[in-house]
Structure formats: structure tokens, C-alpha cells
């Protein structure tokens, strides 16, 4: 540790450490809009997730006035499987409160930079120390307030903290910007699909005829999607096969709205993986979850559809999902397939087809195959696909760039936080 760095307990360099509560009535008391209630599922390492974001009204929020979230607060998950995850909440989701599974850590701005605090808690050795504290209990994993208060960090001067945090934040800002662009590209693709295959905008001046799906352009047909797709099931990889290094195994819970979280995936040895290449994923494969819970628990919801990003090419697919590929007149149409299955009409159809309980629902392949779609002339489909493939190509490029940026950040972070690597202007201290 550099000579001018000092060790502090968090209680010495913060102005608030505390967690909230769930409003009386639990989930039934949540509102469709209002003041954000941040829960553990919203806290990811480095980033905030809006998936399942809950809202409460002013009266409920007033009863949690001791955990009002401020813009620079750092949030730490303190219970359960996601314990020790850390992020900050974007200001657009304020005002907000937190529930009992999330702790607010508010830096004293005279001595501790809030972004430096966030990155310090995410640094590998500190993260492992938090996980060790959490596992010390007799039952479920938990980090107590006193554990947080007594947690020690090695701090440089505030100026050096600010410089270190600025470098790491610049990388994260670029990652977030790329994600925002990808989200926009996704919205553009879905809007284009709706314009072509739902509203039939390019054909509005032509003649329309009745069909099972309502009015469609003359010359078009209504077909079962199963006439054009082939599937490949995932494999039930055994939990005792997993190890730290090796080939990636993708589970439904590792998928996000339109991608795969590689960092959360389990791995098996390369030797073992070589026996299961029939279950490998290719870039732009479409994957649908056939087993899972009902919405809105999007982490493992039945019927969830994702497109395999370039960063997951060659990964193996675990059970509870199938790989789908679409071909029309021997031409691959993955963009059309993806948009078709992400369209609201299919999502409603497949959820209504699901069977089982709220926590363990399933869908049959025959239900997917029997879904009806409008099909037009090949030349028209090619025109649509050309634009969609451009969006997909742009998305894959940004996903690859984010993987490189993430690796850079993860390499720099421990070196900067430990003082192993110093910024030029601070090296003499």
C-alpha cells in the first residue's frame, strides 16, 4: 500500500449506513407508478436493473423516510444469493426508497468519493471479504449493519480517489452508452417488424383479403411458423460438472431481455464440453425458455426469447430452453424469427399456452410450431431482412466492444484500488 494511503472503517468515512423495509401487504401493495422501491433484484454489479422495479405511493414512502435515496448513494445487497452486489442508481429513478434486503452507504464527501467507494466494494479482494462475512451466519447469507460499519477500506487522498474513479467511470459510461444504443436498435427493429408484418404499412395502397389473422395483403398467406423452423433442445448438465474455468454453459437465468450475461454463466471442462457440441449455440441463434415462472419474474420466465450474441458463440445450452432456426426457401431468416417471437402477439399467445404453476410453468414445442404468421413474397421478406440484419450486425459489434471494455475495467480496477498501479501525478506519494 502506498505510504500516504490510510485504512478506515466505513463508519468513519460515511454519513449513513442503513436498509429499508417492505411496505405492509408485500407485493400486493406495490403500485404501477410512483416512488421507486429498490429491491435486491435491481442491484447488479456495476449496473442498475429496471427488471421488476417496484413502485410505492407517497403514504408508503413516508413510512420509509429514513431510507430516502440520494443521487450519490452506493447500494449493497445484504441478503440472499445476490448478497454483496454493488451499484449506484441512475438519478432518473429518484426519488426512491430501498427494502430490507438493500443497504444504503452514503459517503462523507469530505473524505470519500462515492464512485471510488462503489469500485472499492467491487474490487475482488473486498468483494470476497464481503462474501465471507455474509457466509458467517448459521442460516442464509447476510451482511449486517455492524459488519458494514466495521468494513475496512484503504483510501488514498480524495483527489487521487476522484482521478481513479473518473478513469473507471469513463469505461462504464461507454459501456452504458453502448447498451443504450443497442436498446434503441432493438426498438427500431421491433418497430420495423410491426410496420411490415402487423400494420402492413408498405402495402397499404394495395388490395387486402380476409385471413385467420384478419386482413392481409393480397398474395400473402397465413402459415404455421413450424413450417419454417427447426429446433434443438438444451441438455441437463449436472451441477457437479461445473467448475471455475472451462467452456460456458448458458442457463435461462443467465439470459437478459435480448442477450446473455456471460459473467453469470457456469462452466464445464473443455474435455467434457467436447462431448456435447450438439448443444452449442451459434451467433444469432434464437433461444426460447420452455420452462420457467410466469411473468413478471423475467430472470427465468417461461417463453422468454433471446438472440444469441456474438460473445456467446460456441457456448452450450442447458435444459429448459430450445434453440430455434428459421429458413424460408433455403435462406436463413433469424432476424425475422427473432422479431416474430418478440412481438406482443406471440408473447401473449405463448404465455396463454403455458401450463403448470406460477413458479414452474412449461410450454410445448407444438404450441410454438402451431403459431400462425403472415408470409409474403420472398423479395419482400428479403427487403425487410436486409434492414434487420444491419441492426443485428451493429448490435453484435457493440456487444463485442462492451466485452473488451469490461475486460479492461476488470483488469484495471484491482490494480488501481490496491495502489499497484498509480496515476502519474500521484506516483511520488
What does this molecule look like?
This protein has 429 residues and is α+β, with helices and mostly antiparallel strands. The chain contains 10 helices and 24 strands. Strands 13, 16, 18, 20 and 21 form a 5-stranded antiparallel β-sheet that branches. The protein has a 4-stranded antiparallel β-sheet with strand order 2-8-5-6. Strands 4-3-7 form a 3-stranded mixed β-sheet. A hairpin with an 8-residue loop joins β5 and β6. α5 runs antiparallel to α10. The longest helix is centred in the middle third of the chain and has 41 residues.
Give the secondary structure arrangement, pairings included.
Blueprint: E1 6-9, E2 14-19, E3 35-38, E4 54-56, H1 58-62, E5 74-77, E6 86-88, E7 96-98, E8 102-107, H2 114-122, H3 124-134, H4 145-150, E9 152-155, H5 158-198, E10 208-209, E11 216-217, E12 221-224, E13 229-233, E14 247-250, E15 266-268, H6 270-273, E16 286-289, E17 291-292, E18 305-307, E19 316-317, E20 321-328, E21 331-332, H7 334-342, H8 344-353, E22 355-356, E23 361-362, H9 365-369, E24 372-375, H10 378-418
Parallel strand pairs: 3-7, 14-19
Antiparallel strand pairs: 1-9, 2-8, 3-4, 5-6, 5-8, 10-11, 12-24, 13-20, 14-15, 16-18, 16-20, 17-23, 20-21, 22-23
Helix pairs in contact: 5-10
Amino acid at each position: 500500500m502506498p505510504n500516504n494511503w490510510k485504512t478506515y472503517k466505513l463508519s468513519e468515512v460515511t454519513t449513513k449506513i442503513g436498509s429499508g423495509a417492505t411496505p405492509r401487504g408485500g407485493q400486493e401493495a406495490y403500485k404501477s407508478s410512483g416512488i421507486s422501491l429498490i429491491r435486491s433484484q435491481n442491484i447488479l454489479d456495476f449496473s442498475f436493473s429496471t427488471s421488476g422495479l417496484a413502485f410505492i405511493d407517497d403514504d408508503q414512502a413516508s413510512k420509509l423516510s429514513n431510507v430516502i435515496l440520494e443521487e450519490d448513494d452506493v447500494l449493497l445487497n445484504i441478503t440472499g444469493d445476490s448478497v454483496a452486489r454493488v451499484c449506484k442508481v441512475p438519478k432518473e429513478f429518484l426519488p426512491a426508497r430501498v427494502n430490507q434486503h438493500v443497504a444504503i452507504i452514503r459517503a462523507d464527501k469530505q473524505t470519500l468519493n462515492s464512485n471510488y467507494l462503489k469500485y472499492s466494494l467491487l474490487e475482488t479482494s473486498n468483494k470476497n471479504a464481503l462474501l465471507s462475512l455474509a457466509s458467517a451466519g448459521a442460516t442464509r447469507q447476510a451482511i449486517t449493519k455492524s459488519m458494514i460499519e466495521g468494513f475496512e477500506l484503504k483510501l488514498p487522498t480524495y483527489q487521487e480517489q476522484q482521478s481513479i474513479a473518473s478513469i473507471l467511470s469513463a469505461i462504464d459510461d461507454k459501456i452504458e452508452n453502448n447498451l443504450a444504443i443497442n436498446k434503441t436498435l432493438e426498438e427500431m427493429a421491433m418497430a420495423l417488424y410491426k410496420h411490415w408484418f402487423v400494420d402492413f404499412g408498405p402495402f397499404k395502397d394495395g388490395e387486402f383479403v380476409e385471413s385467420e389473422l384478419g386482413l392481409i395483403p393480397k398474395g400473402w398467406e397465413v402459415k404455421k411458423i413450424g413450417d419454417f423452423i427447426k429446433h434443438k433442445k438444451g441438455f441437463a448438465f449436472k451441477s457437479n460438472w461445473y467448475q471455475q474455468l472451462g467452456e460456458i454453459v448458458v442457463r435461462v437465468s443467465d439470459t437478459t431481455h435480448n442477450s446473455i450475461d456471460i459473467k453469470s454463466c457456469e462452466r464445464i471442462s473443455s474435455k467434457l464440453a467436447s462431448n456435447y457440441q450438439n448443444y452449442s449455440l451459434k451467433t444469432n441463434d434464437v433461444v426460447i425458455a420452455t420452462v420457467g415462472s410466469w411473468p413478471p419474474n423475467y430472470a427465468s420466465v417461461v417463453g422468454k426469447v433471446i438472440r444469441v450474441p456474438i460473445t456467446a458463440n460456441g457456448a452450450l445450452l442447458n435444459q429448459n430452453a430450445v434453440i430455434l432456426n428459421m429458413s424460408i426457401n433455403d435462406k436463413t431468416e433469424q432476424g425475422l424469427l427473432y422479431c416474430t417471437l418478440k412481438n406482443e402477439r406471440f408473447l401473449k399467445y405463448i404465455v396463454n399456452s403455458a401450463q403448470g404453476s406460477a413458479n414452474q410453468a412449461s410450454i410445448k414445442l407444438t404450441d410454438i410450431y402451431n403459431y400462425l404468421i403472415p408470409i409474403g413474397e420472398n423479395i419482400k421478406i428479403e427487403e425487410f431482412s436486409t434492414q434487420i440484419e444491419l441492426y443485428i450486425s451493429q448490435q453484435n459489434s457493440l456487444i463485442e466492444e462492451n466485452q473488451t471494455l469490461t475486460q479492461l475495467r476488470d483488469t484495471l480496477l484491482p490494480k488501481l484500488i490496491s495502489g499497484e498501479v498509480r496515476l502519474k501525478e500521484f506516483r511520488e506519494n
